[in-house]
Amino acid sequence: MCVVVMEFMNVVSARRSVRGYAEVEEKKLVKILEAARLAPSWANRQYCRYVVVKDKSKKEELFGGVNPWLRQAPVVLAACADPADSGSRNGMIYYLVDAGISMQQLILAATDLGLGTCWIGAFDEGEVKNLLEVPENVKVVALTPVGYPAEKERLRSKLARKFVAADKRKPIEEVVHREKW
User: I need a surface site. Which of 26, 44, 65, 79 has the fewest CB within 10 A?
Assistant: First the structure.
């Protein structure tokens, strides 16, 4: 496949949630994981970890009933972090922020390489931790499938985007305040 390197804002604008996937090369998977690894973190502690899931039976166990389209993705990544390794300030524990930054870098790197992703926050953490043998003290923060977007967008993907109005973004005036709220 031919890959075109995008300008950053084009990458940000092109990112979307994909729900149909084709295989991805290991070389590209390593590149997006490298982007995640390079993400900033509290006091540079670099505690975000990823579990790479390619095994079909594991994906079936993880997503068979809840998100059946996920089990068809060639790769699913689980972003994990130990809250004890994280800093906190003013009641805010930073492991969620740091894992979010890491995942966002991974997702944007995937988009830049022509790959599709879909941030998954709705999952049974206990089941995921058990199946992937994640230590008890570590939290599974998010999941994402990774692969080339399928040739034709599936009906399920179209309906999901319409339902959550994923293509619509609020105007900048609604999300940015200057000097005061």
Answer: 44
Query: Using one digit for the tens of pLDDT, what is the confidence trace for 42-67?
Result: 888 898 999 999 999 999 888 876 67
- Confirm if 80 and 131 have CB atoms less than 8 A apart: no
78 by Cβ neighbours in 10 Å (0-12 / 13-18 / 19+) ranks as: buried
Quote the CA–CA distance of 15 and 81 in Å, as a whole number: 24
* CB of 119 closer than 8 Å to CB of 111: no
Which parts of the chain sit beneath pLDDT 50? 161, 164
Contact by Cβ (8 Å): 48, 98: yes
Alpha-carbon torsion 104, 97, 119, 129, what sign?
A: positive
- Give the per-residue pLDDT at 18: 86
Where in the chain does DSSP place strands (E)?
Answer: 21-22, 49-53, 75-81, 88-89, 92-93, 116-117, 139-149
Using the 8-state DSSP alphabet, how is residue 120 labeled? Answer: B
